[in-house]
Specification:
Layout lengths: L2 H13 L51 H6 L9 E6 L5 E7 L5 E7 L2 E7 L7 E3 L4 E9 L2 E7 L9 E7 L10 E12 L5 E9 L23 E6 L10 E4 L7 E6 L5 E6 L5 E6 L9 E2 L11 E5 L5 E5 L2 E7 L3 E3 L3 H4 L4 E6 L4 E6 L11 E5 L4 E5 L12 E3 L5 E6 L9 E7 L8
Antiparallel strand pairs: 1-27, 2-3, 3-4, 4-5, 6-7, 7-8, 8-9, 9-10, 10-11, 11-12, 13-14, 14-15, 15-16, 17-18, 18-19, 19-20, 21-22, 22-23, 23-24, 25-26, 26-27
């Protein structure tokens, strides 16, 4: 057992860390919780005695579920989309496309055990491409001039299992390919204010700085003492502070998770094979607090660990598909709001100038296009679902949300010439309002 793990466990026996006193008098009135307590806590609609599914199964026409919904999402129901058609290789499948604030687009087409990435900058009709980098896991978010990607390295790659890359139009000086390749376990997250954070073990180009005398050469960081490190990157992909050690090695079968709040606090989770979980907050200046053992979390192996920012502060934690806790750097941890507890298998994105949420189904939820994503106010009031197609079309994994609230759906397009299939991109610009 590492020294931080042992110290945190001992402290919890004395003070009961990871637990929060119940909020007296809390309750749901007409589907709306009382406003959050002062002090920036992560109470984001909901009660301590929460019934999973509350509010999550109500379906209405998007924008009309409640009178306030039309004010938060005035562009709904969606108009006819813009349509672009691009040729693809015969063996490629159309996966998804992402857009940044400049309206640059990166399109991902899966092919066998890898992903072809097609760059379509708005400033030029010419498109670039990247082949053979690995299998795309996810796109965490946009950068000023590109995107923050996580890829699974090819089987023959000398790199660690996960490859975090910056696919940007102009890579920052000294950062080859704009890529960092931490050792396993590793994780990443978007910074709602721009940029991203990466956490993991020492690897290539992580967590140490590049050698200025060897520009363009991936640098070896495996001589750094073993452990779990954090690095933060700005909107232009340049580092914000030196690699910060946050945990001892998590051991065989362990994993990590990371998330960033709207006000710049970062939470790193170290999860052991038995499910026991340590957390550590890092402030915007790169200073780490003390580790905390979260005794309120259930035991057992963890296969899915996601931290999502909340509009009123803090982070929601999805564990094995279920939203189970809310973490805040000042208020500690607490149960999730009732409406969020009912969104098992969904990703959560803030939208509408921080006045609403979009719940986007993951592969664990087979959602068809007549309900491509669900909308909520920040208090958890359901605002219906967004239709982006028909009930016999699957939108799971093919719908994305951009920073200006633009919604994209990528689908198989027509075969315009023999042997030349296509991908068809549907775009609804600024449909849901700005999304941090």
């Amino acid at each position: 057992m590492g020294r931080w793990w042992a110290a945190a466990a001992a402290a919890c026996l004395l003070i009961g860390c990871g637990q929060q006193a119940g909020r007296s008098g809390s309750g749901i009135v007409s589907g709306v919780d009382p406003p959050p307590a002062p002090g920036g806590g992560a109470i984001d609609g909901g009660t301590d005695a929460c019934v999973p599914g509350g509010g999550a199964n109500l379906v209405a026409s998007a924008g009309s579920g409640q009178p306030v919904c039309g004010q938060i999402f005035p562009g709904l129901p969606p108009p006819d989309p813009g349509v672009q058609i691009w040729f693809r290789l015969q063996a490629e499948s159309c996966r998804a496309a992402w857009i940044n604030a400049r309206n640059d687009i990166v399109q991902a087409n899966d092919i066998e055990q890898t992903t072809d990435l097609w760059e379509r900058p708005v400033s030029s009709p010419e498109s670039g491409s990247l082949f053979g980098l690995g299998k795309l896991v996810q796109v965490y978010g946009p950068l000023e001039e590109g995107f923050f990607l996580q890829l699974l390295a090819p089987p023959d790659s000398p790199s660690p299992t996960y490859h975090f890359g910056w696919h940007i139009l102009s890579a920052p000086p000294g950062w080859p390919l704009g890529a960092v390749m931490p050792g396993a376990p590793s994780a990443g997250a978007r910074n709602p204010g721009g940029g991203a954070v990466v956490v993991g073990a020492p690897g290539r180009s992580f967590p140490c700085d590049p050698d200025p005398s060897m520009p363009g050469v991936p640098f070896d960081c495996t001589t750094v003492p073993d452990g779990i490190y954090l690095r933060a990157f700005g909107p232009d992909a340049t580092p914000r502070f030196a690699g910060l050690p946050v945990f001892d090695p998590v051991g065989p079968g362990g994993q990590v998770a990371v998330g960033m709040t709207l006000n710049g606090w970062t939470l790193v989770l170290a999860i052991r094979a038995d499910g026991s979980t340590l957390g550590r907050w890092v402030n915007p200046g790169g200073e780490a607090g003390e580790p905390v053992l979260f005794t309120s979390l259930p035991a057992g192996a963890v296969t899915d660990a996601v931290l999502a920012p909340l509009a009123r502060g803090g982070l929601a934690y999805r564990r094995n598909g279920e939203w189970v806790r809310v973490f805040d750097p000042l208020a500690g941890d607490s149960p999730p709001p009732c409406w969020l507890a009912g969104l098992a298998g969904f990703d959560l994105r803030i939208t509408a100038n921080r006045n609403g949420y979009a719940a986007i189904p993951t592969d664990a939820v087979d959602r068809h296009c007549e309900r491509a994503m669900d909308l909520y106010t920040v208090e958890g009031l359901p605002c219906g679902s967004v239709p982006l197609g028909t009930a016999d079309e699957s939108c799971t994994g093919h719908v994305t949300l951009g920073p200006q609230g633009s919604v994209l759906r990528l689908l198989e397009g027509p075969t315009l010439e023999p042997g030349h299939p296509s991908c068809e991109l549907h775009t609804w610009p600024e449909l849901l309002g700005p999304s941090p």
